[in-house]
Amino acid sequence: MEKVIEESKQGNSLILEGKATNTKKLFIESYGCQMNFSDSEVVASILTQEGFNTTQKLEEADLVLVNTCSIRDKAEQTVRKRLEKYNAVKKINPKMKVGVLGCMAERLKEKFLDEEKIVDLVVGPDAYKDLPNLIQEVEEGRNAVNVILSKEETYGDISPVRLQSNGVSAYVSITRGCDNMCTFCVVPFTRGRERSRDPQSILEEVQDLANKGYKEITLLGQNVDSYLWYGGGLKKDFEKATEMQKATSVNFCNLLEMVAKAHPKMRIRFSTSNPQDMTVEVIETMAKHDNICKSIHLPVQSGSNRILKKMNRLHTREEYFELIDNIERILPECSISQDMIAGFPTETEEDHQDTLSLMRKVKYAFGFMYAYSERPGTMAGRKLEDDVPKETKQRRLAEIIALQREHAAYRTQSHLGKVEEILIEKESKKSNLHWSGRNTQNTTVVFPKENYKVGDFVMVHIDDCTSATLIGTPVGYSDNN
């Protein structure tokens, strides 16, 4: 993961070792958040049972699926450019079918079939179990659309295939949807209301990963701190639950402790947190268990109370600082990362300076920073004029990124001279003589391979750093192996 970026991740095609008897070829690309990549693993699992093996070669695919992001206009434009590429291939291979999955499919629905003539099926994030029926519709010459949002956790009974896996780390989805209704965000409209997954099915998935030798999991959701299991249903309906359901309910703090205790040798991460929902109890649970990684992604979006209110962020600048203070008091070694939007409607220079001053106080380890782009259907898109000039947005964004780079360098320099536990994940991109892994703070560390291998926990002396990467020397195996 890049530590300082302006736009969403590039799409990744995914590989699956399917059944030898499968004869059809599936090509999947994913864009956007971690949840999309996790969902693509669910899709591959469903379609493996329908006779598909995946391929890296677009030209030989019988079915092409793109899992899309709608969080910014640029993300959608990237998908449309990919559809142009698919169209060129489809002219050579007219039997190839093309489907759009995910948030962009949910946002545009049937319009996608009119806007992009190449598209044969449109499938929202909660409708992947219907893919076999939809593919049958397409094979019979009809376009197919299913964008119905669910009121239950949709895929808790499906064991995802681990696509392009390093065999070391994996995502485990625990919640879907979001109830927060930030005015800039399409997620509540494209992924629906918050609902949580049965903790037993989560524990079973983690156990399966442990049995297969995985060393790290990330508990995943649009807002993990809102996790609440009381027997099924939407979080908003919890007050209607029976007294027995309430008494036996499981919140995120409970779940985190259950997973940590069940697998003391497995590293546990989680993403994403919402400032208004993160509790002191969660921070204390992180401090109590060594295997819960000491890093929190804590999006703030703006440092201005006036802008936070217009964004419908249900926290103030002061409440955010209080949460940061609690993290620093209980977990002083914890790294904190951010999401930040530059140029939200009506943002003044004073508002922008409030954002910079907030960053100076927190000194984030890394961040994801964007210029505001209006999203159709959101409250901001309907009610607020996008009145900050593009040049002003870009200048403010550049100032935010420059300050973040300064703080990232400050944070990496704080590791110099320390010996830290690193989980080896892959070969370094820059040298085939070095490994790459992460420490508990989620910072990338590279060091000589020597006799270590992927999946080993290694103690590494940190000798040098850049603003995003630590460089070290291995000193031996960790006791965690």
UniProtKB/TrEMBL annotation:
Residues 413-476 form the TRAM domain. SUPFAM superfamilies: Radical SAM enzymes (SSF102114). [4Fe-4S] cluster 1 binds at C33, C69, C103. GO terms for molecular function: 4 iron, 4 sulfur cluster binding; metal ion binding; tRNA-2-methylthio-N(6)-dimethylallyladenosine(37) synthase activity. It is found in: Cytoplasm. Its EC number is 2.8.4.3. Catalyzes the methylthiolation of N6-(dimethylallyl)adenosine (i(6)A), leading to the formation of 2-methylthio-N6-(dimethylallyl)adenosine (ms(2)i(6)A) at position 37 in tRNAs that read codons beginning with uridine. Belongs to the methylthiotransferase family. MiaB subfamily. This is tRNA-2-methylthio-N(6)-dimethylallyladenosine synthase. It comes from Mesonia algae. The lineage of its organism: Bacteria, Pseudomonadati, Bacteroidota, Flavobacteriia, Flavobacteriales.
